[in-house]
Design a protein that fits this description.
470 residues; alpha+beta; Uridine Diphospho-n-acetylenolpyruvylglucosamine Reductase, domain 2; Uridine Diphospho-n-acetylenolpyruvylglucosamine Reductase, domain 3; Alpha-Beta Plaits; 4 domains; 7-stranded antiparallel β-sheet; 5-stranded antiparallel β-sheet; 14 helices; FAD-bd_PCMH_sub1
């Protein structure tokens, strides 16, 4: 082995990589941008030793080989909108950022696919699909900032999972660079392809621990020609379950979203966030129902008559129906305002859990009481996608900074109850490092052992995003 000082050799190797890829591709020292030091989690930022910004898969390979020669851990980064430190570096690591690997490479109308670079923002993909006469259904509140590669790495969910599934259901092919620098290119467009293992699923949801995704083939869908939305007020959770059943049977494939908000959430957004409520306060729960179809002349009357029938049956205590795109967007504003809770509530801790739909309200009741009784001054609010088994909650103690919030105590109460009720500690945000301690609450020892076996097989030197997930 070449015996050089441990400080000298990494610096020399990074300088050589800068000469190869260009000055803008390798940033070190004071040139490292603050954005590359953390994701959107509330954890403390850590400055990486370098940020490498390749333009293609070969550049990613060059970056990986440089890190391997210098024995430097490296972490892939996209839009950095994650909430679990999955893409955050530790001090001394190298960040391999895909921020310059952006763009739509191809839209194949016959196959209804789009091939994109992994650093492309989700909103860019949505707009490109729309302009081409198609629809890409993945949708998150961070759509303008998050990158599609990060969406894949966390198997993002979002607002329309009930109809279109999680991100992995929207992907046909991948190009990925392995931890040893090998480029695997399988930009498959075939819906039916059973030729051996479907390797893309190894990397989707692995949070950048098994490989770095560089290009993606996405499924496109026919563009909806009609969108209907209603904000409904209901007496209790039994009525919510009945409404979900009625939506599934009465709207069928038109049902695209089913968002539920508990009264504490409604109180916060209407009294503290200044949202003008489409329906009055004082009800047991609130539900945003969205349906998308292909013929407005037929779909809108069908949606209206469906709601009227539910009103006649006494299932709905109140309801407001959107009469325009602006009103639909206003209804979604009620649900999406949670992205601004940092300004509305101040410092708080966000949670993303999975539970059986029938158990949601029981969890909310028990969790709210346990937090209030177990942590002095702890408040919490609850909301979520529900139709796909995903509940979100935020908890906080007023007057405390993010660092002072009793997160460990909150985690123990919330995730302990999740385990007791057979749920998941992460429905769509991933594990990263912030939930790593609690992975065993949702996965068996045998499952975690298999994850470690896969990690060791692909990354025996443990240099790619080490310490994340498992």
């Amino acid at each position: 082995m070449d015996m050089v000082t441990p400080v000298e050799r990494p610096d020399q190797l990074l300088a050589a990589l800068r000469d190869k890829l260009g000055a803008a591709a390798v940033l070190t020292g004071t040139d490292v941008p603050a954005r590359n030091c953390n994701d959107w989690s509330a954890s403390l930022p850590q400055t990486p030793r370098a940020v490498i910004r390749p333009l293609d898969a070969q550049g990613v390979t060059d970056a990986i080989l440089t890190c391997r020669k210098a024995h430097l851990p490296f972490v892939p980064q996209g839009g950095l909108t994650g909430l679990c430190r999955g893409a955050s570096p530790e001090a001394g690591w190298v960040a391999i950022s895909l921020e310059r690997m952006t763009g739509i490479e191809e839209i194949d109308r016959a196959s209804m696919t789009m091939t994109v670079k992994a650093g492309t923002p989700l909103e860019t993909i949505q707009k490109a699909a729309d302009e081409a006469g198609f629809f890409f259904p993945l949708d998150l509140g961070s759509r303008g900032s998050c990158a599609i590669g990060g969406n894949l790495s966390t198997n993002a969910g979002g607002n329309r999972v009930i109809r279109y599934g999680m991100t992995r259901e929207l992907v046909l092919g991948l190009e990925v660079v392995l931890p040893d620098g090998t480029i695997i290119t399988n930009l498959n467009k075939l819906m039916k392809n059973n030729a051996g293992y479907d390797l893309k699923h190894l990397f989707i949801g692995s949070e950048g621990t098994l490989g770095i995704i560089t290009r993606v083939v996405l499924k496109l869908f026919p563009k909806p020609r009609s969108t209907m939305a209603a904000l409904c007020a209901l007496k209790d959770y039994a009525a919510v379950i009945a409404l979900l059943d009625a939506a599934r049977s009465g709207l069928g494939p038109l049902l695209s979203a089913f968002e539920v908000m508990w009264p504490d959430y409604w109180d916060v957004i209407t009294t503290r966030a200044g949202v003008k409520p489409p329906v009055a306060a004082g009800h047991g729960l609130y539900v945003l129902v969205e349906a998308q179809g292909t013929d407005e002349s037929l779909d809108a009357p069908r949606f209206q008559s469906w709601l009227e029938e539910l009103m006649k049956r006494g299932l709905l205590a109140d309801a407001a129906v959107a009469q325009s795109l602006a009103q639909t967007q206003a209804f979604w504003r009620v649900r999406d305002i949670c992205a601004e809770f940092g300004q509305v509530l101040g410092p708080h801790i966000s949670y993303d859990i999975g539970l059986a739909v029938a158990q949601m309200d029981e969890f909310v009741t028990r969790c709210k009481a346990a937090l209030a009784n177990g942590i002095k001054g702890c408040e919490s609010v609850y909301y979520g996608h529900i139709g796909d088994g995903n509940l979100h909650l935020v908890s906080w103690v007023t007057g405390l900074s993010v660092e002072q919030q009793p997160k460990e105590e909150m985690d123990a109460i919330i995730y302990g109850l999740v385990r007791e009720m057979g749920g998941s500690v992460s429905a769509e945000h991933g594990i990263g490092t912030l939930k790593k301690k609690w992975l065993g609450h949702a996965r068996s020892e045998a499952e975690i052992a298999l994850m470690r076996t896969l990690k060791a097989a692909l990354d025996p030197d443990h240099l790619l995003n080490p310490g994340k997930v498992i």
